[in-house]
Design goal:
- The chain is 25% helix and 35% strand.
- It has three helices and five strands, in the order αβββααββ.
- It has a five-stranded mixed beta barrel.
- The longest helix is centred in the N-terminal third of the chain and has 17 residues.
- The termini are far apart.
């Protein structure tokens, strides 16, 4: 084969292989930290404690996760100033890379299918 055929074929193969990780993951288990604020829920993958870093995913909670969070809130003031942090293991669907949420500030969305484990952690002193 000549170089004018090999180079384009090789280039197309490399581009196709490079785009594979950009797709989403369906029905995967994710371990990390959930940070819930008044208007945005974030998930920091692979975080273990209050020292979460990196680019978070927008979290799209299911009813079970909302139930767990609601059971943690005991004071009316907590509802108005809603903020919480949870160490969690979730099963969900991760979106492909794109621009998500208000002002398109997030690269990915994590849609929760089920909650494997979730425990509230206190991060007021750590952050």
């Amino acid at each position: 084969m000549s170089a004018d055929r090999i180079i384009p074929a090789l280039l197309i193969s490399v581009l196709a292989f490079a785009l594979i990780p950009l797709g989403g993951n369906k029905n995967q288990t994710f371990d990390g930290v959930i940070v819930m604020n008044f208007n945005t829920d974030e998930f920091y993958p692979n975080a273990k404690d209050c020292n979460y870093r990196g680019a978070p995913y927008v979290l799209l909670p299911n009813a079970r996760l909302r139930e767990i969070v609601t059971n943690e809130i005991t004071d009316v003031a907590d509802v108005r100033l809603f903020h919480g942090t949870w160490r969690a293991k979730l099963n969900g669907n991760l979106s492909h890379i794109g621009w998500y949420k208000y002002r398109k500030t997030y690269w990915r969305e994590l849609s929760v299918n089920c909650v494997v484990d979730a425990a509230s952690i206190s991060c007021s002193d750590a952050r």
